[in-house]
Amino acid sequence: MSKIPKGIVDKIEQRNRLNEEIRAWCNENLDMDGMDSDSADITDHYVGEVNSFEDERREWCDQYQVGEDSFYGDYYWETEYSGKYVHMEFWI
Fold first, then answer.
1. pTM of this prediction?
2. Which of helix, strand or coil describes residue 58?
3. Is 45 a residue whose pLDDT tops 70?
4. Is the torsion defined by CA of 50, 31, 57, 17 positive or negative?
């Protein structure tokens, strides 16, 4: 098996830098309790109930209780792109 190509190494390092930038923004602007921004994705739909209208940005939450104090589910946030939402799963 050959060595990992430089192009792949460069892309992984770029991804890591981007993940850090995304993490910093999310931690400053979103309630990240139980969430990992590394798993954030963009979707064209949302599910759940409107959770808030903070700063004119809508947020939806679809959650399930799995114990006395444990919940899991999905959060969706409106973006500046029409029909695109940031999505993250959570577990608390």
1. 0.80
2. coil
3. yes
4. negative
